[in-house]
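Reminder to self: tokens first, then the designed residues, so the page reads top to bottom the way the pipeline ran.
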């Protein structure tokens, strides 16, 4: 699987885009069926530029609703998680309101291509294939693949997956990786993370592979399951994404990531959203990226 750990594919730009001040109200809900049809895009490409978004007073952001601790909806109906914390900071500095759109892995690229959302912040791993269709920001997290399985039949290596069913979610790097590198392994595919984990819980599959950050968190919440493989494939990066060619919005996000390094924003984000889950088992520096610098 070919991946990009750095933003070599993103067009460099000269003068930094001026930061926009002002505090805006942040909506805590939002429609999962939102579109931006009521906002004209001056770009002519269908997407909304930074100027369009600020003129409208609302930014539309695609996030996960079922992938704790990165993006999920709590008991009060509020979006929470590591990605959502960053999204809220972007909204604050944009000076707009936010409309959340729940996405799943397979919809992340289509949602940007169809201009259903302005930004995707959904644990989005940067790959060359995806970068041909969307533009990625500077990274804010590092990640590899992991595999979780029942303690009673623990999968400790890829060889242990022979003659077993491996659960994956459609549109994830796990699906791409195993199809390319281990085509003989039988994959059991689901559209939603919740469905994939339920399949593991009830024994329809023997193991589940997705980002190691996710399976490590899930295993700590589910006794009887262990991440037997915690680092598989290349070390990849997680980044925000915008529609291809939306340079003004991409530059704004990149400038934010660089500026937030001064306050160690993503380490604080980690302490708030991920540390309560991982405890002392994970070193934040192995996951967190500040200032977009690996």
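Designed residues (294 positions):
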């Amino acid at each position: 699987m070919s991946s990009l750990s750095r933003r070599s594919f993103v067009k460099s730009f000269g003068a930094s885009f001026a930061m926009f001040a002002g505090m805006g109200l942040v909506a805590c809900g939002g429609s999962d069926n939102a579109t931006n049809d009521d906002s004209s895009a001056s770009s002519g490409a269908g997407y909304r530029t930074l100027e369009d978004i600020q003129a409208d007073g609302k930014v539309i952001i695609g996030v996960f609703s079922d992938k704790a601790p990165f993006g999920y909806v709590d008991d009060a109906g509020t979006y929470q998680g590591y990605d959502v914390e960053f999204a809220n900071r972007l909204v604050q500095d944009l000076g707009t309101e936010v409309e959340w759109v729940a996405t799943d892995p397979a919809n992340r690229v289509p949602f940007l291509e169809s201009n259903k959302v302005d930004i995707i912040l959904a644990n989005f791993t940067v790959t060359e294939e995806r970068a041909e269709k969307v533009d990625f920001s500077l990274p804010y997290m590092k990640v590899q693949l992991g595999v979780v399985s029942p303690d009673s039949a623990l999968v400790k290596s890829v060889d242990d997956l022979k003659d077993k069913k491996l659960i994956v979610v459609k549109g994830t790097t796990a699906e791409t990786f195993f199809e390319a590198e281990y085509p003989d392994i039988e994959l059991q595919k689901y559209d939603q993370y919740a469905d994939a984990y339920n399949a593991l819980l009830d024994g329809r599959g023997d193991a589940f592979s997705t980002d190691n950050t996710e399976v490590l968190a899930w295993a700590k919440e589910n006794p009887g399951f262990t991440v037997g493989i915690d680092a598989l494939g290349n070390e990849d990066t997680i980044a925000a994404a915008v529609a291809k060619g939306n340079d003004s919005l991409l530059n704004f996000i990149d400038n934010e990531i660089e500026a937030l390094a001064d306050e160690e924003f993503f380490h604080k984000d980690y302490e708030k959203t991920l540390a309560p889950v991982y405890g002392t088992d994970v070193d934040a520096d192995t996951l967190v990226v500040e200032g977009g610098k690996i």
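Residues 286 and 292 are 14 Å apart (CA to CA).
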